[in-house]
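REQUEST ID: PR-0412
SUBMITTED BY: lab tech R.K.
PRIORITY: routine
TASK: structure prediction, single protein chain
INPUT:
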Amino acid sequence: MKLMFEKFLLDKDDFERLYSQNVKNAATRYIASLLLGIVSTFWISFFLTDMDTSSSGVVAAMTLMSALALVTLGLLIFSVKTYFSKSLLKKMQSEAQNNSEWNVIFIVSSTWRTRNHGGLKQFLVEFNKAWQCDFLPHLPLDKNKTYEEQIGASELYIASLLNVPITSVQLNFICERTNVKFHIHDGKEKVIKYSFVNVIIVDQSSYTLKQMRKHFESKKSRRYWRTIEKLHEDINTVTNNFDVLKYIDELRGQIRDFSSEERFEVSNLKIIWNITKKCGYTCNICATHDDKREELSLEAKKAVLLSILVKRANINEIDFSGGDPLCCAENKAIIDIAQDFLGEDKVTITTTAKGIANLSAEEKEKYLINCELTFDIPPMAEGKENLRGSLEYYETNKEFIELDRDKIQDLQVNVPILDTGIVEPEIRDFIERIKKMAPSRITLIRLMPVGKTKFEKYPKNYNPAKIIQLFQDSFDDIYLNCALRVKYNTNEVCTMLREKIGIDCAGNVFACGWAGYICEDVDIGNNPFYLGNLIHQSFDEILNTDKARRISKGCDNTRGDCPIFSYLASGDMFNNSDPLVIKHQN
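STATUS: complete
OUTPUT:
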């Protein structure tokens, strides 16, 4: 019992109560000593008033009185300092930093029926002799490095522990938690930070996974399965791991088994992450407009990115969009991580001239490696405006290109076809301007009925065929965005969930980036293209939901129709009722 008590770690709430009581007791003692010193000094002074000041006794008394006065003054200062001690939270934060710890907690979970545990979720633990209790597998991390820099070491550790190839280890980052504890044995506070990751084993046979389960059921194994309920029955485990057990309880709904059935895998996936709502413009046709969505904090964005990066072997590109990702300074930290993990060639930033204006000269070199800018076809007639509502968007982007084109290593130009009634001379004049920009890629984009552009008010006579043909005649390679490509290359089916996927500023995942904004007045959960939220589910888990599988399979039946238009026209995304395709066929 003494050993357990010496290693006992108090929760910060309990420690605050004990510490506050200790401060009060100390203050009482010092104030009593102060009063005693004052009374003693005056008492000696009283007897010295009628005595000969030259006698040795008086000198000794005066010396004693002076000493008492100094002691009293010291006690006064110390009492005031003690009584008005700074807050416990600040004290603990400042003193605990030197004793801080950071551990990654590996959650290896399995659920299956046995005689002892009828279908309960169990967790892999190991017995620690020093602490005389069970611990989940964990690995100390270097607090001077980021978690991203230490993923490789984490994968190697758990692969060795489970005796599987490192390539079969998939770590799904769940969250981080921080707790402040007091160590009674050495009297020091500690800040303990946990990074919880869900361990998934992939590319292993059913037989191998079954044998792994059985191995940890053996009584000879150092590691074994325990339910949370069983762990709560052991006093030592609860005493020393109360915080971890509490967090596991909270996260239980997000934890997946370490093995699973056949998985839905994607390759060459492009992720369009509308990471922010912030933008320097207020366009009438904003495709990502939705005032109801709350943008994630920086830490939450990091958690979303880490969940995405679990599938980094399958990711061909992450396109940071918005809003304008460069209008929000904290997004640069997210882009840095993505570039470090995926390489600069797989990270694209869709931005604007106003967003770029926020960058220093050094930052332009770093963030404008792969850059997408949008240019409308401007009307030549003076005073005429396009559907965007203003020519400012076009003019500011054009001015930036004229001055700083050399700052962008790989410029990709997006051309939204807003007004299909624009005359040919205006189109040809615009094409010449685009040629001077020397873009590596030009993509024509269909006006989409999302965000501020409602399907009910969509242009009835929209037909971009003439504009597409003029661009194809003027450039060797012209790319058509998916909603156009399926119309004019009708052998192609929709590639959502196979080659592309969308994420919004709140961490919601949609089968298509455009489709996340078709139902502004409807709860996001009722959006037929909605798959899940990366704050509550891992990216891998979202990709393997039944809904994701159904949507991916349904794309096989598209014959050139955009599922967004089909859904808005008929209520069924695979009903092949895209009005532009019907018009094109007629």
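NOTES: Residues 1-12, 113-118 have pLDDT under 50 and may be disordered.
REVIEWED BY: pending
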